[in-house]
Design a protein that fits this description.
The protein is α/β, with parallel strands linked by helices and about 180 residues long. Helix content is about 35%, strand content about 15%. It has six helices and six strands, in the order βαβααβαβαββα. The chain has helices at about 20-30, 45, 65-75, 95-100, 125-135, 165-180; strands at about 5-10, 35-40, 80-85, 110-115, 140, 145. Strands 1, 2, 3, 4, 5 and 6 form a six-stranded parallel β-sheet that branches.
Amino acid sequence: MHRPRLQIIIGSTRPGRRGPAVADWFHTLAQKHPGFETELVDLAEVGLPLLDEPRPPQRGRYEHDHTRRWSEIVSAADAYVFVVPEYNHSFNAATKNALDYLAGEWAGKPVGFVGYGGVAAGARAVQALLPVVAALGMVPVAGSVHIPFVRLSFTADGRFEPAPGLDESATGVLDELIRRTAPVG
């Protein structure tokens, strides 16, 4: 039986970022969750330049190899979770750039979020993402994971240790994503 593919997309690309460790934690939970094939996608490794396609993405006619590769990666998924930092009351530029590169590849697919930051726990980043993913035709799930004061959740050796309740919050997002990707019938 086909299991839906969930891509967990690491939005931060800056040196010293916390995103990979947070995404690893979420990925480990997703791998244990029944129903998904999972894949980590790191925007730092994808390496997209600022949007440089001459035509709008809605046409799906891409000029650059990096765009075609990105299209293939995104097209392979049935659902997404964006792991995003909160910068200046919003989400980061690399995430916006990655979203803007494509159109049809995102359409109709469910999306969840893991936001992290300071006092607002990434909530403002997630809120700012909602109209963007809606404009792309994605279907956001109701719940999100929010990690406050993320720097305090790391051990001396750089491992992410989730606060009580975060595993349950993440499982709720995964449950909703699998409901949205399950075949009807």
